Amino acid sequence: MKLGIDNLTQLPWDVRNAIENLEVAIQSGWGIQHKGDGSHNAITGTSTTMSGDVTVGGLFRWGTTLWGDRGGVVVPDQLTASVNDYAPRGIDAAWELRLSSDASRTITGMAAPTSNAVGHYKFLYLRNGGSNDIVLSHNDSSSASANRFSCPGGTNFTLNTADSVWVHYDTRLANWIVEGA
């Protein structure tokens, strides 16, 4: 993957600043300056090619999609019941869901992404911002097969107050994979 940005001024100032700071960190922190052909030279925003996944200033780019851009944090309505096939508005553009519930609630599955902009995966950060537990139910048949969670150890995963967890949707497995510890 190439970061290929023709005009840094087209980016939001915080992203542009992060890229410029990355350039400075590479030059001063590593003390080694490489060009794409392996020779040594100054690294600049126009001479650098990056491969693989790149994280810049909290933004995650995979393929052609920039995740975590402004508006990527979704705060859905408070859960007032357990829910199957959870599909809060804005989930496809989100990189973070800030959840809350009025009592301990269970989510048996979450809507699979409708766009496949990142290849085979979509990453989502789930944060329990409320004062009650939210349980992600492992492989629960109450939700459609493609919307189910695959939790560590094959058991339900509880988001206690102020807990958070990364999940990713794997289109090859057709499930949300909970990355919990």
Structure explained in plain terms:
With 181 residues, the protein is mostly beta strands. The chain has two domains: 8-57, no CATH class; 73-178. It is 10% helix and 25% strand. It has one helix at residues 13-30, and strands at 54-56, 59-62, 65-67, 73-74, 96-99, 105-107, 121-128, 134-136, 149-150, 157-159, 164-170, 175-178. The protein has a six-stranded mixed sheet, with no helix packed on it. A hairpin with a 2-residue loop joins strand 1 and strand 2 (59-62). It is globular and about 40 Å long. Mean pLDDT is 74; it is low at 24-35 and 43-71.
List the helices and strands and how they pair.
Elements (H helix, E strand, L loop, with lengths): L12 H18 L23 E3 L2 E4 L2 E3 L5 E2 L21 E4 L5 E3 L13 E8 L5 E3 L12 E2 L6 E3 L4 E7 L4 E4 L3
Parallel strand pairs: 4-5, 5-7, 6-8, 9-12
Antiparallel strand pairs: 1-2, 2-3, 7-11, 8-10, 11-12
